[in-house]
Amino acid sequence: MITVENLTKFVPSATSAAPVLREVSFAVGSGSLFGLLGPSGAGKSALTKLLGLQDRPDAGLIRVDDVDTGRLDHRSLRELRSRFSTVDPGFVLRPERTVAGNIATPLEQLGVDGPQRRDIVAELLDLVGLTRGAAQHPGELNEGQRRRVALARALAVSPSVLLVDDPTAGLDADEAGGVLAALDRANAELGVTVLLATSDADVVRKVCDGVAVLSDDGALVETGTVFELLSDQDSHFAGTQLPPVDTNGTELSRYDSVADVVLIGHATVPTLLSEAGHQMGVEVQTLAGGVTRAGETPVARYRVGLRGERADLAVSWLSEHSGIVRPVRRTARVAAVSELVARETRELAGVAA
Ligand SMILES: Nc1ncnc2c1ncn2[C@@H]1O[C@H](COP(=O)(O)OP(=O)(O)OP(=O)(O)O)[C@@H](O)[C@H]1O
Ligand SMILES: [Mg+2]
User: Fold this and answer.
1) Among candidates 49, 1, 47, which has minimal Cα distance to 22?
2) Which end of the chain has the least Cβ crowding within 10 Å, N or C?
3) CATH number for the domain that contains residue 307
4) Same domain (yes/no): 42, 77
């Protein structure tokens, strides 16, 4: 477990010391593939350096398995750092060595013997999908393949934590997919905790299980599992990643009730809406939205219009059966009751005060 508490980092500029990270707090579970998401300049690279223990914060702290890394002596810090491996955007491969040779380099430095070294390199070549390219040289590879070599080399030292800074930046969809597949396999098969800095929210939705979202001025916007954030339609992440539900031009007053509904999972996405209609005897119509995926899991958001006596009951039924519901328009009757309840609550609060 890695916990970040009120982490603050300043970068001195000519005129002032401007904060790059502002009291950022979040937690990363062991074995997680965790995204550090934010626009350019948000402080992702600064955060990656801090998390990789290559830099020290100006305030706040980083705990690794409950140990405050700021209190470690030189030797303990070096030991801990050896469990972390980083691939930063400026990585350099050795052009005169083959792909296999590049991956073997850290093992040679550690004095790992020949047969064991070959086994580890073969396993990593397979993991990053470069078995057939083992004898090629970096100059013969495309950028996506070069990044996969750098990943394999970083994994050769069997780190518990792998930090990758912007691994898909500037790649086409195919190459990016190859890099993400390699990260996914490293996480799933080697059990390494992966911290992935990216400005691409799609990358987080496709491969991450958790995320910390940073604003352009280095503050934490939100953090949680990808499903937690997708379940909250008001979250920043859900706003960019759930299918849009614009119904401009559709006359919503033609429906007795209108709601935005998020559905998650193979069992729910294809069936829950029609089931609600069936159970409550109302007509359920999809007005906008669609299906996307988080990892392998289907995630849908629809704006639905419901017609019938029991339209509001059907909406309640949906939220009782794992639909995540945000009302857009309710029947006049329910709206009147809600207003009454709100007014009484305000009056009661007034009495209490
Ligand atoms: N050495 C430095 N000196 C001055 N300012 C810096 C330095 N390093 C980073 N900054 C500033 O700190 C802020 C955060 O930088 P950082 O590189 O961590 O952002 P980032 O999220 O990684 O951005 P990108 O997506 O472009 O890589 C930026 O405003 C940047 O200009
Ligand atoms: Mg960066």
Assistant:
1) 47
2) C
3) 3.30.70.260
4) yes
User: Looking at residues 312-331, what average pLDDT do you find?
Assistant: 90
Q: What is the CATH number of the domain that holds 232?
A: 3.40.50.300
> Is it the case that residue 334 has pLDDT exceeding 80?
no
Number of structural domains found in the chain:
2
38 Cβ inside 6 Å of ligand 1:
yes
Question: For residue 314, how far is the Cα from the chain centroid?
Answer: 33
Q: What is the pLDDT of residues 123-171, one digit of tens each?
A: 999 999 999 999 999 999 999 999 999 999 999 999 999 999 999 999 9
Question: Do residue 143 and residue 248 come from a single domain?
Answer: no
Q: Which atom in ligand 1 lies closest to the alpha carbon of residue 42?
A: 21
- pLDDT tens per residue, range 178-237: 999 999 999 999 999 999 999 999 999 999 999 999 999 999 999 999 999 999 999 999
- Residue to probe by mutation, ligand 1, list 16, 24, 44, most atoms within 8 Å of CB: 44
Residue 118 in any domain: the answer is yes
Q: Does residue 233's CB lie within 6 angstroms of at least one atom of ligand 1?
A: no
Which of 351, 306, 302, 297 is closest to 330 using CA atoms?
A: 306
Q: What pLDDT sits at residue 41?
A: 93
CA distance 23 to 188: 31
Q: Which ligand is nearest to the CA of 42?
A: 1
Q: Is residue 351 part of a domain?
A: no
Which amino acid is it at 128? V
Could you tell me the distance, in angstroms and rounded to a whole number, from the CA of residue 62 to the centre of ligand 2? Answer: 20
* Residue 20 Cβ < 6 Å to ligand 1: yes
Domain with 288 in it: 244-344
Tell which atom from ligand 1 comes closest to the C-alpha of 21. 14
42 lines ligand 1 (CB under 6 A): yes
Indicate whether 179 and 220 sit together in one domain: yes
Which residues sit with Cβ closer than 5 angstroms to ligand 2, an ion? 44-45
The residue whose CA has the least distance to atom 30 of ligand 1 is 41
By most ligand atoms within 8 Å of CB, the mutation choice from 9, 11, 168 for ligand 1 is: 11
